[in-house]
Amino acid sequence: MEFENVSEEVKREARRFAAAFGVEKWERKEESELHVLLVSRAGSHKVGCSICHTTGHIEEIGVVKDDLIALLFVDRWDGRQEIVEFDRVLPDDYDFMVRGLHCLGYKDEEVLSQLPPLTAHERMELRLSMPREFWPQKWLDEEAAN
User: Residue ranges per domain, the chain?
Assistant: First the structure.
């Protein structure tokens, strides 16, 4: 994954996003303050994210169908998070999104309750599939406590 003229925070967050969603290839586009990464994954899913130039913070994650967003996760600057659903969203889109959000360490129960719950086995599989360098702080804390 090649980057030019972007901060280390943006590079790291893009790599973390790619690991969480199993991204195989991507292309980078820029729009004002955001790096918009349009990425694809093996199978039927495409996923994209917007990363802020200045903070390196992922602000939006979208599951894309037929070049239109089907399911969107928004992490606002004021700390509010939400899931926005569009009429073309399918059950497997929810599964795909919740797995990626789990790997990124999002934990807002009000938001995640809109998505299907992960079993303990699924959570463990996801943890084992993520490179340790991209683990959310919660996972690192749990490992240190054991």
Answer: 8-141
